[in-house]
């Protein structure tokens, strides 16, 4: 006897299982969820492009529920009413901010909830109102902004045209007066000390060569320390009496400060007189038998009356015990035909040659 298979019963069971699985998935991912739910009414003041029933609801970026119902407001078709179902533990407040966000490459819309501190009264139905423009995408916002810009440009087309015409006139005026503008800017730059600084010109003091035969030489060791001088003479600039600067000497510099320059040329002069017994700087020699101490009194151009170069030194020969062996004032001047750097340096060379020759002869006699 052949057994008849219960195909109807098996088919019914399979269909019931499929329906149960789909129902469970729908319940788990939509209105059912896990745990108790709370429904809230949300109103959007504008379009909500792409929002569908079943779309996610995020609170501070965390998914807490879904959209369960969507529809237009019957009293104002510009508004959209939505119902959301979220976990009962979600801290939704009356001032919670509502918005619409677009996620992923395809821009799937989700309802977003953020913050809030005001707790609703017990039993009072809670309606959340989204901010104006919350449903706008970036593209829509850009379109609206461009539309507003276009409206502003259209309303002000006349003034804008006049402004552009004025700018054109101004630029043409600048082009016609480029030389004058450059001159004005150069004057301002010079007045404020800007631009490339002027190159300084350095001048040296020449060592005299013809100091006469060395009939008598230094009988003991001699050193010449750096001369002393008041602060005004501690400079590389040309000095004038009366005080002040001469415009022709704005770029003038001595090769070193005046005291160091005089020290170096005095030592060179002694070497030209007698290299075998020439003195050294104090730092180059131990305890010398004698020191030639020089104080610079004048090293300047005098412009009162006849222009002239003036050099004045006071000299003392001191032994190793600090006793002054001899002292002398050495002064000279040289007429200056033209107050300009080259002529002035030449006059200083001639005046210093006389000073050096007199100082060497006196020192050799004193030591």
What would you note in describing this structure?
By secondary structure, this protein is an alpha/beta fold. The protein has two domains: 33-133; 201-366, ABC-type transport auxiliary lipoprotein component (Rossmann fold, 3-Layer(aba) Sandwich), CATH 3.40.50. The protein is 32% helix and 26% strand. It contains six helices and 14 strands. It has helices spanning 7-29, 138-155, 157-176, 178-191, 258-273, 341-366, and strands at residues 37-44, 56-59, 62-72, 80-87, 97-103, 108-114, 127-129, 201-203, 222-223, 240-241, 252-254, 290-302, 308-319, 324-335. It has a seven-stranded mixed sheet with strand order 5-6-2-3-4-1-7, with no helix packed on it. Strands 9, 10, 12, 13 and 14 form a five-stranded mixed sheet that branches. Strands 8-11 form a two-stranded parallel ribbon. A hairpin with a 4-residue loop joins strand 13 (308-319) and strand 14. The mean pLDDT is 82.
Structure at a glance:
With 367 residues, this protein is an alpha/beta fold. 32% of the residues lie in helices and 26% in strands.
In the CATH scheme, the class of the largest domain would be Alpha Beta
Q: Largest beta sheet, briefly?
A: 7 strands, mixed
Report the principal-axis shape: elongated
Number of strands: 14
Unreliable spans are none
CATH superfamily assignment of the largest domain? Answer: ABC-type transport auxiliary lipoprotein component
């Amino acid at each position: 006897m052949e057994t008849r298979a219960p195909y109807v019963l098996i088919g019914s069971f399979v269909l019931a299982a499929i329906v149960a699985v789909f129902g469970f998935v729908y319940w788990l991912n939509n209105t059912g969820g896990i745990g108790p739910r709370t429904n809230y009414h949300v109103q959007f003041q504008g379009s909500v492009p792409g929002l569908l029933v079943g779309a996610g609801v995020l609170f501070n970026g965390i998914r807490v529920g879904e959209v369960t119902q969507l529809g237009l407001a019957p009293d104002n078709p510009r508004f959209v009413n939505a119902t959301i179902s979220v976990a009962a533990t979600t801290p939704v407040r009356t001032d919670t901010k509502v918005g619409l966000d677009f996620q992923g490459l395809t821009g799937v819309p989700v309802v977003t909830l953020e913050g809030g501190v005001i707790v609703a009264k017990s039993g009072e139905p809670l309606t959340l109102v989204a901010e104006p423009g919350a449903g706008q995408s970036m593209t829509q916002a850009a379109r609206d902004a461009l539309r507003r810009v276009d409206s502003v440009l259209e309303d002000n087309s006349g003034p804008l045209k006049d402004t552009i015409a004025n700018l054109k006139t101004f630029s043409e005026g600048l082009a016609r007066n480029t030389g004058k503008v450059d001159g004005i800017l150069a004057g301002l730059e010079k007045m404020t000390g800007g631009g490339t600084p002027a190159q300084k010109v350095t001048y040296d003091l020449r060592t005299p060569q013809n100091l006469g035969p060395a009939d008598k030489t230094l009988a003991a060791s001699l050193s010449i320390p750096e001369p002393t001088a008041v602060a005004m003479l501690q400079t590389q600039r040309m000095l004038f009496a009366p005080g002040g600067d001469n415009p022709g000497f704005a770029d003038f510099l001595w090769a070193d400060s005046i005291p160091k320059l005089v020290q170096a040329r005095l030592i060179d002069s002694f070497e030209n007189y007698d290299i075998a017994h020439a003195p050294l700087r104090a730092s180059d020699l131990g305890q010398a038998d004698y020191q030639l101490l020089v104080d610079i009194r004048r090293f300047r151009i005098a412009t009162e009356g006849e222009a002239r170069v003036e050099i004045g030194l006071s000299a003392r020969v001191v032994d190793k015990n600090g006793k002054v062996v001899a002292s002398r004032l050495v002064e000279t001047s040289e007429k200056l035909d033209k107050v300009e750097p080259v002529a002035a340096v030449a006059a200083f060379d001639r005046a210093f040659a006389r000073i050096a020759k007199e100082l060497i002869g006196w020192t050799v006699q004193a030591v």
